Fold:
Amino acid sequence: MDVIDVNKGSLQEMEIKGHEEPKPFASGAELVRFMDENDMLFHMTEKEADVLLGYLGGYDFLLGEKDGKLYRGDLAYEQGKVRWLNDTIDDAIDVVCEWNYEMVQTAQAQVENPDDFIDFVKKQNKLESLRADERLLDAMFDRTKYGKELVQLAEKMADDFIRDMQSKGGIDAAIEKMTEAVKEGKDLLPDVSPVLKAATGRAR
Structure:
């Protein structure tokens, strides 16, 4: 099995030779067991794992493992073939959070424009289900490296704001400086990962 860097973000494409494909997880319990047995330092409940795998499956992706490593399988890349990519649990959770966010936005818009009362109830129930997933996924995201980096970023911005507010110019100057920094996409925390920096525009 060869691993080839194809510059697909943080994922790497792998070329499968023979019958060496990763084994897909058939349930959340299998994923939880894999994480625990391979010291992935990320614990999740079976319910969280089931939701994660459910979203991935809905977008034609699998999660699988081989030799203690995690892979994402793309079912839609080529008919009759799975394209496997090196993956991390952090990236898998991050992309599922993105999908859930987009689905919530779409469902919210649909609730605001129902065909009739019955349609409204159906769409409202769907939105509430997605909101429940959102809460669960957000809790998972907070435990990823990206969630932890966001906390660091928020703390640094708060510290910078307080320092600027106490300096010459006061609160107005501090607000203006922070607003300009956010607007210009200034590198507020150099050691934050490039993936997180690209995702900080998400309104979650």
Residues 1-10, 188-204 have pLDDT under 50 and may be disordered. Residues 152 and 189 are 8 Å apart (CA to CA). DSSP finds seven helices and six strands in the chain. Helices lie at 28-37, 46-58, 89-111, 117-142, 145-166, 170-184, 194-199.
